[in-house]
Amino acid sequence: MILFRLAFAAVALCVMAAPASSEELYGTLKKVHDTKSFTIGYREASFPFAYYDDQKKPTGFAVELCTRIGEAVKQQLNMPDIEIRYLPVNSQTRIPLLTNGTIDIECGSSTISLGRQEQVDFTYSFYVTGGRLLASKESGIKDVEDLNGKAVGVAQGTSNEITINQLIKSRKLNLKLVYVRDHAEGMLALETGRIDAYVHDEVGEYALLAKSTQRERFDLVGPLLSFDPYGLMIRRDDSAFKLVANRALATIYRSGEIYQMFKRDFEPFGIPMTPAVDWTYKLNALPE
Amino acid sequence: MGHLDVNVILRNLPYLWEGLQLSFLLAAIAIAGGIFFGLIMALLRMSSIRPVAWIALGYVNFFRSVPLILVIFWIYFLVPLLLGHATGPFLSAVVAFTMFETAYYCEIIRAGVQSTPKGQISAGVASGMTWLQAMRHIVMPQAFRKMRPILLTQSIILFQDTSLVYVVTLRDFMTSVSTVASQELRMVELYLFAGAAYFAICFAGSRLINRLDGGFRR
Amino acid sequence: MSAYNWNWAVIVSEPYVGWLLDGLAVTVMLALSSWAIALVLGTVIGLARTLPSAPLRWLATGYVELFRNIPVLVQMFLWFFVLPELLPREAGHWLKRDLPHPEFFSAMVCLGLYTASRVAEQVRSGITSVPPGLAAAARASGLSLAQTYRYVLVPLGFRIIVPPLTSEFLGIFKNTSIALTIGVMEITASSRQIESYTFQGYEAFAAATALYLLLALLLLFLTRRIEARTRIPGWIARSNT
C-alpha cells in the first residue's frame, strides 16, 4: 500500500512537476498560492461521505478525496507547506461560502445538477445514487402513494427537498412536510416518531440505519425517486484547478485504489457496490 | 428516547468546553468592540452636524430593525465577496456581532449622556474646555456610572446571542452541543445541558453585576 | 472572487415572490400570537413581583430569572425537541404529530414565554415608578389592595411603560427569525429556501432585509401613534431603549 502510494507520487511528480511560477496562476490555484492554505468545506452529517469521527475530526469517503486533491494542489504548486484547513458547512451555506472564497472545495454528498452549475462547478462524479424513502415499519408505508396523510421529513436545501416537492405536485400527494436541518436530525425525527418517513439519498439512508440503535423499526421502501450523481463542488470558470482535482480523482480511479476506499468506508454500513457506481469509476479513470 | 444518559455529556465535556471558550472569546471581543464603536456612534448621533447625525441614526435604526440572524448571514456570505478574499468564519462572526451590538450600545450610551444636565457642558465650555474635553472629563464619567448596569445587562444578552452563530456552524458552545446531539443521537440530554449551562453562566453574571453595582452605589 | 452571477429578477418571479409573502405572513402571525401571550402573562407576572405576598413575588422573580438567562435559541430547542420526549407518550405524540403545525406552536409558546419575562420587568418598573404616596393615599381613602391596583397603579404604570413595551413589540418581530432553526418557514427561512432552489442567495437575503425594514417602519409608525395617545401630560418619559 505504502509502496504503491510512493510509486504513484513519483509518477505524479514526473508528470506534473511543471514549475508553478512559470505560468500565470489564476482562480483557486492563485488563491492557494498566495494564502498558502487550501480550505475544504465538509458536511457534518452526510454519512458515509463526510461526518465526524469519535475525536470530532471530519472524516469519510469524500473528505479523503478532497484531502487527496489538496495534496495534489501542493504538488502542482510545488509548495509542500500549504496548510489544508477544514471548515464545516451545511446545505444552506455551502454555495455562498464557495462563491465568496471562504472554502475552495466542498465535500459531502452534493448532487451535480445543471441548475447548480449556473453558480458553481463540479469535479468528476465519485458516487451515483438516488432519493428513496426511509419509512418506519409501523407506518405501513410501502411506496410513494402511501405517503398521503403522513408526516414526511426532508433536509432543507438538499436535492431531496426538490424531489419530494416535485412528487407532491405530480402525484397530487397530500402529506405534511417537515423540514429538518441535516440528516442526523432527520433520523432523530424518524426515531422519535415526529415523522413517518424520511426522504434522503439511498446511500445515506443505509448509513443512517447502520448508526441507529433502533434500526429494526425502519426500512428502505419503494423505488429510487431521483438520479443523484455526486461531485465535489468547486468554483466556476476555474479550469486549471478543476484539472488538478480531476487528475487526482482519475488517478485514484485508474489505479483501483478507489475500490479499496469503497470497501473500507462503505462495507461497515452494509452498502453494496452497484453497477452504476462501478461504471462511474471506470468511465472517469481517464488516461494521462 | 428512554432514560437520561449523563455519560454522553461527561464523555464530550472537553469538546463542549472548547466550544464554550470560543463563545466567551467571541462575546468578549464583541462587547469591547460594541462599546468602543457604540461610544463613537453615540457621539456622531449627538453631533450638531446634521448629515453626520442622520447617518448615525440611519445606522442605528437599520440594525435595530433587522434580526441578528440575518446580519450574521449577510456578513458571513457577503463580506468575503466584497473584500475579494476569504475572512474566515470567526472574523465574520466578530464583525457581525460588533456591527449589530454597536447600534444597541450606542443607544444605551446616548441615553446615559443625555440624562446628564446640558448645563454641565456649558459650564465646562465656559471654563475653557473644548466640547470634547467637557464630554470626556465631565459628562462621560457620570454617564458611564449611570449606565453601567444597563451596559452589563446588554453584555449578558450579547453572550446569549452568540448562540445564534449556530446557523453558520461556527464551532461555538451551541454548535458543539448540537454536533454532539446529532452524532450521539441524544438531543434531550444535550439541550437540557445547554440550557442549564447557559442559565448558570448568565444567572451568575447578573448576580455579579448586582453585587458590583450595589458596591459602586454605596 | 466574483464568481457570482447576479439575477435580481428571481425575487420578483413566481413562485419565489409567493414564498417571500408567505414567509411575511408567518412572521406576522407568529409575532402577534406570541405577543398576546407575552402581554397577558408578562402583566400577571410583573404585577406579582410588586405584591406584598412574598411567595408570589419569589415565584414571579424565579420565572423572570429563568427565562431571561437562557438564550432564545436554546429555549426554542427545549420546547420543540426536548419537551415532547419528557412528557408521557401520548402527550408527546400529540405535540409532535396531532398539532397541525408543531413547529409554529412551539415557536409561539417559546417566544411568548420568553418575551413575557421581559414584559414583566417593564410592568414591574412601571408600577414601582408610580410615586408611593399615590398608592398610600388610595389605601388610606379606603380602597382595597385590588382596587388600588385596578384604579391607580395599573392605569398610571401602564401609560408610563408604553414606550419600552413598544420596543419589546418590535423585538418580538425580529426574534421570530430564530424559529427558522426548528423549521418555521418565516421570512428568513423563505429567503434561504429561495437560495437553495435558485442559488441566488444574496438577492434572496436582500429581499428579506427589505421586508424586515418595511415591517419595522410600519410598526414604528403605529407605535408612535400609540405612544402619542397614551403619554401622560407633564410626565417626563424616561427613554428606556
Notes on the protein architecture:
The complex is a heterotrimer of chains A (288), B (218) and C (241). Chain A is of the alpha/beta class. Chain A has 2 domains: 2-129 and 228-283, D-Maltodextrin-Binding Protein, domain 2 (3-Layer(aba) Sandwich); 131-221, Periplasmic binding protein-like II (D-Maltodextrin-Binding Protein, domain 2, 3-Layer(aba) Sandwich), CATH 3.40.190. Helix content of chain A is 39%, strand content 25%. Chain A is built from 10 helices and 13 strands. In chain A, the strands form 3 sheets. A 5-stranded mixed sheet of chain A has the order 5-1-6-13-7. A 5-stranded mixed sheet of chain A has the order 10-9-11-8-12. Chain A has a 3-stranded antiparallel sheet with strand order 2-3-4. In chain A, 50% of the residues are buried. Chain B has helices at 7-45, 50-65, 68-83, 89-114, 119-126, 131-161, 173-184, 187-217. Chain B is built from 8 helices and no strands. Chain B has one domain (7-217): MetI-like (MetI-like fold). By secondary structure, chain C is an all-alpha fold. Chain C has a single domain (25-230), classed as MetI-like fold (Orthogonal Bundle). Chain C contains 10 helices and no strands. Mean pLDDT of chain C is 89; it is low at 237-241. Classes of the chains: A alpha/beta (288), B mainly alpha (218), C mainly alpha (241). Chains in contact: A-B, A-C, B-C. The B-C interface holds B 1, 61-62, 64-70, 73-74, 77-78, 80-81, 84-86, 107-108, 111, 114, 156, 160-161, 163-164, 166-167, 174, 187-188, 191-192, 194-195, 198-199, 202-203, 206 and C 1-2, 4, 65-66, 68-75, 77-78, 81-82, 85-86, 170, 174-178, 180-181, 188, 201-202, 205, 208-209, 212-213, 215-217, 239-241.
Give me the secondary-structure topology.
The complex is a heterotrimer of chains A (288), B (218) and C (241).
Chain A: H1 2-16, H2 27-35, E1 37-43, E2 45-46, E3 50-52, E4 58-59, H3 61-77, E5 83-89, H4 94-99, E6 105-111, E7 120-129, E8 131-136, E9 151-155, H5 159-170, E10 176-180, H6 183-191, E11 197-201, H7 202-211, E12 218-221, E13 228-235, H8 239-254, H9 257-266, H10 275-283
Parallel strand pairs in A: 1-5, 1-6, 9-10, 9-11
Antiparallel strand pairs in A: 2-3, 3-4, 6-13, 7-13, 8-11, 8-12
Helix pairs in contact in A: 3-8
Chain B: H1 7-45, H2 50-65, H3 68-83, H4 89-114, H5 119-126, H6 131-161, H7 173-184, H8 187-217
Chain C: H1 16-48, H2 54-68, H3 72-86, H4 89-98, H5 102-128, H6 132-140, H7 145-160, H8 162-175, H9 187-198, H10 201-230
